[in-house]
Design a protein that fits this description.
Layout: H1 44-57, H2 67-77, H3 88-91, H4 102-111, H5 118-130, H6 135-146, H7 152-160, H8 167-180, H9 182-203, H10 212-216, H11 227-235
Helix pairs in contact: 1-8, 5-8, 5-9, 6-7, 8-9
Length: about 240
C-alpha cells in the first residue's frame, strides 16, 4: 500500500496518518509561535531559536508531522523504500550517488562543533531556511503535482520557513541574539569578525554545488496525472 492509500493520508481527510506514516495535507504546524521568553541579548537564546526549529522539523512530537517521515512517504509513493537511516544498508544503498553525500556530511561535521563554529552554523542555518522559500518550493510543488505526487512536503516547508514568522525569521533572530552580546565581550572588531564568519557560513550552502535541481527532477517518461496541468507547464 502506498502512502497515498494509507488511512488518514487522503487530501480530504487532513487527519494524522498511522504510526509509521503520513499526515493529511491540512496538518501543517503554525509558523507564528515564536517565543518571547528570552530577553534580547541573552546568548542562551541563540540555542533556543535553533532548538525551536529543530523541534518543528521533528513534528513537535507528532509522528504524522515529522518531516523525515513525510519525505519517506513521498519516496515510497515513487517506489523508493530506503533502509533505516541509522543502518549500514542505508549508507551502501545503490541508489545514492557519492556526490549526494557532500552537503549532508558537511552539515553533520560542522554541527559537531557548535562552540567553535557557531557563527558559521548560524549563517548556514539562515541560508538553508531561505533556500527554498517561494521559488524553489513552488517549482518543486508544480513538478510533484504534474506527475501526480503529494506536494505536502514542499507545501509544508514553503509555509513554515517563511521570512515573517517562520523558520527563516527564527534563523535571523538567532543571529541577532548572538551578535547582541558580542560588543561587551569581544569589542567592535570582534563583532565585525563574527559577522564575516556568519556571512561565510551563509555562502557555504551552495559552495559545494547545488544538487536540489537534480533531486527534484522528475523522470520524463512518467505519464502526467493531470493532462491539463501538463499543457500549462509545457507552454510556460
Amino acid at each position: 500500500m502506498s502512502c497515498a492509500d494509507s488511512p488518514g493520508t487522503t487530501p480530504s481527510s487532513g487527519s494524522p496518518g498511522p504510526a509509521t506514516g503520513c499526515a493529511g495535507p491540512a496538518r501543517c504546524p503554525a509558523a507564528g509561535n515564536r517565543s518571547t521568553a528570552c530577553a534580547a541579548g541573552s546568548t542562551r537564546c541563540t540555542g533556543h531559536f535553533l532548538f525551536q526549529t529543530y523541534w518543528d522539523e521533528l513534528g513537535n512530537g507528532e509522528i504524522s508531522l515529522n518531516h523525515p517521515a513525510i519525505y519517506r512517504c513521498l519516496l515510497r509513493d515513487m517506489g523508493i523504500d530506503l533502509p533505516q537511516t541509522s543502518s549500514r544498508q542505508y549508507a551502501e544503498w545503490p541508489g545514492f550517488r557519492e556526490e549526494s553525500f557532500a552537503k549532508p556530511v558537511f552539515w553533520l561535521a560542522i554541527s559537531r562543533f557548535p562552540r567553535t563554529y557557531m557563527p558559521e552554523i548560524l549563517g548556514l542555518n539562515l541560508a538553508m531556511e531561505l533556500s527554498g522559500v517561494g521559488g524553489g518550493y513552488r517549482r518543486a510543488g508544480a513538478a510533484l503535482e504534474f506527475y501526480g505526487y503529494s506536494t505536502l512536503f514542499v507545501d509544508l516547508h514553503n509555509t513554515i520557513d517563511n521570512v515573517a514568522t517562520g523558520h527563516s525569521a527564527w534563523a535571523a533572530d538567532a543571529i541577532d541574539t548572538y551578535l547582541a552580546d558580542l560588543p561587551q565581550v569581544l569589542g567592535p572588531e570582534g563583532v565585525a569578525a563574527a559577522w564575516e564568519r556568519i556571512r561565510a557560513g551563509y555562502r557555504s550552502l551552495n559552495r559545494l554545488g547545488n544538487l536540489a535541481a537534480g533531486l527534484y527532477a522528475a523522470p520524463r517518461t512518467r505519464v502526467p496525472a493531470n493532462p491539463a496541468r501538463a499543457r500549462v507547464l509545457t507552454r510556460s
